[in-house]
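Raw record, unedited: Holo-[acyl-carrier-protein] synthase
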Amino acid sequence: MIKGIGLDMIDLGRVKQVLLRNPRFIDRILTPDEQKLFAKYHGSRQVEFLAGRFSAKEAYAKASGTGFGQALSFTDVEILTGKSGEPHFVKPIRPGETVFVSITHTGRSAAAQVIIETYEKENEV
C-alpha cells in the first residue's frame, strides 16, 4: 500500500548561490557518507548532486507527511548511490516500509520523486 508520494523541484542557480555564500550548507544537507560522494564531483556536477539530494530529501519529507522540523532533519535522511549509479535510501529505514526515489537534472533544475510503500506481514490482515 502506498503511504505517501512526494515531489520536489529546485533551481540549480539558487543552490549554487547558497553554496557560494555558505559552504557549510553542505553540512546541513548531506550526511558524512553523502559528502564523500559529493567530493568525487567537480564544478556544476557538485551543484547538481547537492540539488538532487536536497530535492529528494524534500520529496521524502512530503511523502512521509512530516515535513522538516523537530521530527525530521535533512541529515536524518540519507541517499547513497547503488552499483549502477541509482540513488537509494539508506535512512531512515522504518520497519514495514520501502522507499523508492528518482532524481533528475536539467541544465537549470533538479527534481525528485519519492514513493513510500508500506507492507503488512502475510499473516496480518
